[in-house]
Amino acid sequence: DQQVKQNSPSLSVQEGRISILNCDYTNSMFDYFLWYKKYPAEGPTFLISISSIKDKNEDGRFTVFLNKSAKHLSLHIVPSQPGDSAVYFCAASPQGGSEKLVFGKGTKLTVNP
Amino acid sequence: KAGVTQTPRYLIKTRGQQVTLSCSPISGHRSVSWYQQTPGQGLQFLFEYFSETQRNKGNFPGRFSGRQFSNSRSEMNVSTLELGDSALYLCASSLDPGPSNYGYTFGSGTRLTVV
Questions:
Q1: Average pLDDT, integer, range B8-21
Q2: What is the rounded radius of gyration, in angstroms, for the C-alpha atoms of chain B?
Q3: Could you tell me the pLDDT band of residue A40, with boundaries at 50, 70 and 90?
Q4: Chain A residues 25-44 with CB within 8 Å of chain B
Q5: Which among B6, B95, B59, B41 has a CA at the least distance from the CA of A43?
């Protein structure tokens, strides 16, 4: 039973445009969400997180939106750059992030120059 | 400061053998978690250690085990290797249990191939 789903295995966007990566979850106990970026042959790198008490968190070009009623979150990257090309993982944790992460299977983002 | 160090980076083993992977967390981090990444299943949680105690365990068979030492360094062991154990094994460290506000810091992983 996949509790965190990233339904788009891949996404391709033009440089300078917006990239929107989506994530859905099923477990209502999740209250802390994170996005990681992963390049080949490297470990995942933490990007941004959001607690369930918020519906938006922003860090530079990266914004995460959380819709608790829909159990849906999204990561917006504006503007997209070729260096953003990587696999993006959505992850969720219960109890304010004090418990293990449950990951989605990832979305491969390609930003074309 | 130095990041999370995993050794070795690459490993090839034969079915039935056992393997030990090592992880040195960021200095000062007391919690170490292990994840398995495969193309079909994504990243799956193996176990988490804090202060030398296993705090959490994922849904993996008993062939997968781990431990943490007093200096927070951790090892994981897989016995009686199967072809399906071929994966990237990632170690993540954090100051306290769980990812908290800063997320885990992951190492680059150990790529295990079982032949």
A1: 97
A2: 13
A3: confident
A4: 32, 34, 36, 41-44
A5: B6
Q: With beta carbons under 8 A apart, name residues in chain A contacting B92.
A: 43
- A41, A42, A106 ranked by CB distance to B42: nearest: A106
Asked if the C-beta of B32 comes within 8 angstroms of chain A's C-beta atoms, the answer is no
Q: What is the dihedral of CA B98, B47, A40, A72, to 10 degrees?
A: -50
Distance CA A72, CA B18 (A): 41
The pLDDT tens digits of the residues spanning A67-113 come to 999 999 999 999 999 999 999 999 998 876 667 889 999 999 999 99
Quote the distance between the C-alpha of residue A15 and its chain's center: 19
| B33–chain A Cβ distance below 8 A for any pair | yes
Among B4, B100, B109, select the one facing A97 at the smallest CB separation.
B100
Inter-chain touch B104–A101, beta carbons under 8 Å? yes
Contact (CB<8Å) A91/B90: no
**Which of A39, A3, A43, A42 is CA-nearest to residue A23?**
A3
Whole-angstrom CA distances from B114 to B36, B80, B88 are 14, 11, 12
Q: List the single range of B6-15, B53-62, B89-98 with lowest mean pLDDT.
A: B89-98
